[in-house]
Amino acid sequence: MKNIPFFILVLFTALSIQSQKKLNQYGYILIPKQFSFQDEPNEHNINKVLKASLEKYNFTSFIKDDDTIENINPCDILHLEIEKSGFMMTKMILIFNDCYGKKIFTSIEGKSRIKEFKASYFEAIGEALKDPNISEHKFTPAKATVNIISKNQPAQKIANAKNNSVVDFILEFKNKKYEFLPTTKNEYKVRFNNTIIGSLKAKENDETYILNTKNIKGTGTFDDFGNFILTRVNPVNKAVIKDIMARTN
């Protein structure tokens, strides 16, 4: 029984180290223009203050739609949410989700007994930011590659472009995963089951790509999360079909 407190301490330490490691793999944070508890965008200047605060902890922060995000793989960006609760006391928890909506990290709970809304929000958020996993954040990318991405374009891993056997990204469509291998800046080989089955090529002076494989033919663009929005035409009735090829890496 005497060992229980020590075991709990070891477990807590291990979980804390794991959480720190997860958060350290991300260097970018996307902050919404308006959190669920706000009545208007940037109410009380919370969003802009949060942006400045996170910059102090080695994050590069953006406010959605206000800031331009370029040359960054969307899946290298965490999306910030704030969970607010409490009646006699304001409680705030910062939640960091990845590009697929998966929860990567949840901060400690910040609390405030101040009755005035603005002051209580800032105090509670400030307490949550004291979480050592945030305040001691050090960006250490999981992979030492260079990702270049802009809206409606896939990641271009320059370090991999010299080796066409290296997969740049993977898209899943109808329960099948297709690997995309860069050949040039705007052209890829498509591989399925270790066999090259076609290509993906960008149109000149356009953000549209032409997908030409044995079984899938069409055009499309990439969304902010790296998913490919595919447009095809049914050869029988000429109906336009739109599908999503979901990015999995």
Features:
Rossmann fold; 21% helix; 2 domains; 249 residues; eight-stranded antiparallel barrel; elongated; 5 helices
Q: What's the helix and strand layout?
A:
Elements: H1 4-24, E1 28-31, H2 46-56, E2 60-63, E3 77-85, E4 90-97, E5 103-106, E6 110-112, H3 117-128, H4 132-135, E7 147-148, E8 156-157, H5 158-161, E9 169-173, E10 176-184, E11 187-192, E12 195-202, E13 209-213, E14 217-222, E15 228-233, E16 240-247
Parallel strand pairs: 1-2, 1-3
Antiparallel strand pairs: 3-4, 4-5, 4-6, 7-8, 9-10, 9-16, 10-11, 11-12, 12-13, 13-14, 14-15, 15-16
Largest sheet: 8 strands, antiparallel, barrel
Instruction: Detail the poorly predicted runs.
Output: 6-17, 143-164
Q: What share of the residues lie within helices?
A: 10-25%
Annotated CATH topology of the largest domain: Rossmann fold
Mean pLDDT: 81
Beta-strand residue percentage: 35-45%
Q: Structurally, how many domains make up the residues?
A: 2
Task: Tally the beta strands.
Answer: 16
Protein name: DUF4468 domain-containing protein
Describe this structure in words.
The chain is α+β, with helices and mostly antiparallel strands. The chain has two domains: 25-135, Rossmann fold; 154-247. It has five helices and 16 strands. The chain has helices spanning 4-24, 46-56, 117-128, 132-135, 158-161, and strands spanning 28-31, 60-63, 77-85, 90-97, 103-106, 110-112, 147-148, 156-157, 169-173, 176-184, 187-192, 195-202, 209-213, 217-222, 228-233, 240-247. The strands form three sheets. Strands 9-10-11-12-13-14-15-16 form an eight-stranded antiparallel β-barrel. The relative contact order is 0.10. It comes from Wenyingzhuangia heitensis.
